[in-house]
């Protein structure tokens, strides 16, 4: 299902995207996810980036709300993957710069 956004909603999404991309930790998360090029657990990423569980939760939430990652939960584990569609539509070629 494709949801069309009006101009104001699109602008609000752009603000969320650029806010999410303005933090060095979130850039590290995105870079690592791109290098691994597969679905990863939040815990595994947090270990590699060396951040606490609460800090990880915050950063993953910001990335998810900006539409830059997708999350699915199985039991107690959360799996995340990059949402390439959002990158292609709003920040084309950004991933190539990492």
TrEMBL record:
Residues 6-98 form the HTH arsR-type domain. The keyword Ribonucleoprotein does not apply. It comes from the Bacteria. CDD domains: HTH_ARSR. SUPFAM superfamilies: Winged helix' DNA-binding domain. Keywords: DNA-binding, Transcription, Transcription regulation. SMART domains: HTH_ARSR. PROSITE patterns: HTH_ARSR_2 (PS50987). One of its GO terms (molecular function) is DNA-binding transcription factor activity. This is Transcriptional regulator, ArsR family.
């Amino acid at each position: 299902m494709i949801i069309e956004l009006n101009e104001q909603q699109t602008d609000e999404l752009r603000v969320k995207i650029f806010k999410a991309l303005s933090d060095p930790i979130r850039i590290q998360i995105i870079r690592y996810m791109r290098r691994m090029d597969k679905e990863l657990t939040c815990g595994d990423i947090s270990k590699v980036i060396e951040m606490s569980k609460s800090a990880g939760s915050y950063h993953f939430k910001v990335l998810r709300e900006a539409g830059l990652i997708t999350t699915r939960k199985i039991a107690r584990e959360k799996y995340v993957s990059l949402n390439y569609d959002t990158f292609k539509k709003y920040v084309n070629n950004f991933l190539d710069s990492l």
